[in-house]
Amino acid sequence: MRKINVFPVAYTRVFGWAFWATLLGTAISGLFFRDSLLMASTGLAAILLVKPMDDLLTENRDAIWLHRRSSWEANSVLTFKIISIFLSVFAATIAYQLALPAYFLAPLEPTGPLFSNQPLPLFLHNLRVLLACLLLAFIYRGTGLLLVICWNAISWSVSIFTFIHAAHAAGGARAWFYALAVMPHLILETAAYVTAGMSGVFISKAIFKYRLSSSKFFRVSRACVVILLASVLARARARCCDRRRGEASGSCPRFCRSTSRARGRNPGSRRDVGGCRSG
Question: What letter would DSSP give residue 4?
Fold first, then answer.
């Protein structure tokens, strides 16, 4: 008997599609939306990734309801595949910056709660970001989740590239080391936002598909609660990585603040741009 492939969407397909979608979206943005490069690149990349995201959500649904796989297994596979989209968008933006650095370099200026050492402002900021992910995914479903993922990937890549460029210009010798040091935080932060967005997508679909008193709605709601708890734990773990990294190196916290300063900035027009800023 032929074995059924429960998860037919390959990681390489997801990664490759996201990579080329980002390159194409960024190229179009550079030609026609130079003054809003980051926002336009985010939107165009997300539009090109709507079909792959729908395929992933369909795969997740079929794995749970048709092939009777556990929610934990199916949702874990979906989480890793969406994280692969983030990594692909991140890598594509880095590649584009290596080719055309002048298009992306942003000023490094501190602003907002991200640069405070006080725990409460940072906690409230992270909570707002998680709620924004949840709300966007609830309203726009897969497209909303893609907007969050693409924005975080592009803004993080611009921040790290800008820091490395500035550090080399100033004679810094360990810029790439600190860039790699921030990657554990970056992956955990992405996992938190992905899982929060997944909860929004699932509960949005369940509300319009099932009766609120049905067993299927209860099962989806229970899964969403578990996913949200995983999101909060991932975000807390990311914060823990920040503290441990700061204890290990006196310069690394300065790098974290520097990389954050470029996030939410528009390198094309040197003005702030709107959108969901990651924490």
Answer: P
In three-state secondary structure terms, 71 is helix
- Domains in the chain, number: 1
Cα three-residue angle 45-49-50, rounded to 5 degrees: 120
Q: Decide if 279 is inside a domain.
A: no
**What's the pTM?**
0.78
pLDDT tens per residue across span 29-48: 988 988 888 899 999 999 99
Range of the domain at 139: 11-272
For residue 6, being part of any structural domain is answered with: no
Computed on alpha carbons and rounded to an integer, the radius of gyration of the chain in Å comes to 19
* Residue 2 lies inside a defined structural domain of this protein: no
- Tell me the torsion sign for CA atoms 199, 205, 208, 213: negative
pLDDT tens profile 194-249: 988 999 999 999 998 888 888 878 888 887 888 877 777 776 666 665 555 444 44
Q: Are 163 and 66 in contact (CB under 8 A)?
A: no
Residue 256: Cβ within 10 Å count: 20
- The number of residues in the chain equals 279
